[in-house]
Design brief:
Distance between the termini: 15 Å
Radius of gyration: 14 Å
């Protein structure tokens, strides 16, 4: 792990509200895995997570950036929501759900005050979820904004 990513991990860990943010995201989405990921143009790292389905991923672990939908979220700066990969015309043939074995996904960018995207708040589950017709996306957007505000409050800067 580079010193820059280590700094990012420490920053997220220093935000006292992160466990509550993750718990609320899990509850609002009815998903069983939620995380805050640091996503840069060339790296992906889990900074904090709440894991109720036994996914083999821990804070500080990295994934190949190009195998993540979080990279797409960082690229276009818009949330992504997938109720069921199998029924989604945009994602049913996408390699990421197949690689990681998830059926539902939601992600919101963590956009800082200067417009930079720190990463994402995202959730996945191996089962389909009813996300599109719920308040999950609004909740994830608001919680991602809260993470961004907290990063600003502690003076995080890339």
């Amino acid at each position: 792990m580079t010193s820059s990513l280590q700094k990012d991990l420490v920053a997220i860990r220093s935000i006292e509200a992160v466990p509550s943010i993750l718990e609320l995201a899990l509850t609002r989405s009815s998903m069983r895995f939620v995380a805050i990921a640091r996503v840069t143009p060339d790296r992906w790292m889990a900074c904090a997570l709440l894991n109720r389905i036994g996914i083999d991923l821990n804070a500080g672990d990295e994934l190949d950036l190009k195998t993540t939908i979080c990279d797409e979220v960082r690229g276009h700066g818009q949330a992504v929501i997938i109720d069921d990969v199998a029924a989604d015309p945009l994602y049913r043939d996408h390699p990421t759900p197949r690689l990681y074995g998830f059926r539902s996904y939601i992600s919101a960018p963590i956009q800082l005050a200067d417009g930079e995207i720190f990463g994402t708040l995202f959730a996945v589950d191996v089962a389909p979820a009813r996300l599109s017709n719920s308040n999950a996306l609004l909740s994830f957007d608001l919680l991602a904004k809260l993470v961004a505000l907290e990063l600003g409050r502690i003076g995080w800067k890339n």
